[in-house]
Specification:
Blueprint: H1 16-31, H2 38-61, H3 69-84, H4 90-112, H5 118-137, E1 154-155, E2 159-160, H6 164-186, H7 189-199, H8 201-206, H9 211-237, H10 247-260, H11 267-281, H12 288-303, H13 307-331
Antiparallel strand pairs: 1-2
Helix pairs in contact: 2-6, 2-9, 2-10, 2-11, 3-4, 3-5, 3-9, 4-5, 4-9, 6-9, 7-9, 10-11, 10-13
Length: 332
């Protein structure tokens, strides 16, 4: 295992081809709402960022959380309440929701990182159930009816998000910022240390790295990004419900990561498109949707052991290696 110091870690430099693909992706994202229902795209983006926060924690820090719905839902409730009841600007409401999610992440992570494996996961699930109970009983959440009729606010006092199209581009910017933060964290000295802890925690400790501190920072960052996704979701759909803080939402985010591919940047996006499209276009099949999702999950696990994106990347690397080795064999 190669443990790089911050001074030795090179800054991430994207290949030219990758830069072009990113530009093409941004262009398609900007044109997408003119071709596909914008609210459906907004839902996909919010769940993609939620799944990306889970993917960052599992794939790069080796921490499996079953409670990310508490950050997603808590930010949704706080943002919705701040905008609807207190009349805050949209940006201030989003920051309030994200701050609450980060605070919950700090508290949960401080206690959970002292345990490993399934014990860590169970602690996160226990905290998530506590937040679910609070959302059910607190008066400002609306209980089983949820927080309804959240208005679309102004952002920074001048950008009107009342129309769906205008909010789509604001959401695209916010979600894009979240993915950029994940990319920068992964390709930074901080990300290098997280990988080292994931691969060999005892050796990372022996080299003097404060392992628990790095884990806590990773957990708080992941919770913050999940909170950003929840804040954008409540403003988009103008509703926060108990589903947002339910364990099923955490399970869906984990399912998206597995289908798309853990430890990949595009995995949460692809997984969100696959799972979200099935829920949207197969809604007429009622309870059969869950059976179809289960069948797709089994197929992915059997044929794409690393997820769709992860397996495609592995196949592409193998193909490139064969093309590189073939001329050498002929020469010998």
């Amino acid at each position: 295992m190669n443990m790089l110091s911050p001074a030795d870690t090179p800054a991430p430099v994207l290949p030219t081809a990758t830069r072009w693909w990113i530009l093409v992706g941004i262009g398609l994202a900007c044109l997408a709402p003119w071709l596909v229902y914008p609210m459906f795209l907004i839902k996909l983006m919010c769940f993609a960022l939620l799944a990306a926060s889970v993917n960052f924690l599992i794939g790069y820090a080796g921490l499996l959380s079953f409670g990310h719905a508490m950050f997603f839902g808590a930010a949704a409730y706080v943002t919705g309440h701040a905008v609807k009841v207190w009349g805050w600007d949209g940006a201030a409401g989003i920051l309030a929701g994200v701050a609450v999610a980060a605070s919950f992440g700090l508290l949960t992570g401080f206690l959970a990182i002292r345990r490993q494996g399934i014990y860590f996961s169970m602690i996160t699930l226990a905290f998530a159930q506590l937040v679910y109970f609070l959302a059910l009983r607190m008066p400002f959440t609306g209980g089983e009816d949820g927080l309804q009729s959240v208005p679309r606010p102004m952002l920074l006092g001048f950008y009107d998000t009342s129309s769906t199209m205008s909010f789509y581009y604001a959401c695209l910017l916010a979600i894009g910022l979240g993915f950029w933060l994940i990319y920068r964290a992964v390709h930074s000295p901080f990300g290098q240390v997280l990988r080292a802890i994931r691969d060999n925690e005892p050796r990372a400790k022996s080299l003097g790295y404060p392992v628990n501190r790095y884990k806590l920072l990773a957990f708080v960052l992941s919770a913050t990004l999940a909170g950003l996704a929840g804040a954008m979701k409540v403003l988009a759909f103008q509703l926060a419900t108990l589903t947002d803080v339910s364990w099923t939402t955490s399970g869906e985010a984990l399912l998206i990561c597995i289908v798309g591919g853990l430890n990949t940047m595009l995995g949460p996006i692809v997984g969100s498109i696959v799972i979200g499209s099935m829920e949207h276009y197969l809604a007429g099949f009622a309870e059969w949707v869950l059976i179809i999702q289960g069948a797709v999950f089994v197929v992915v696990v059997m044929l794409f052991r690393k997820g769709i994106v992860g397996q495609l990347q592995a196949w592409w690397r193998e193909r490139q290696q064969r093309r590189t080795v073939a001329p050498l064999r002929k020469a010998t």
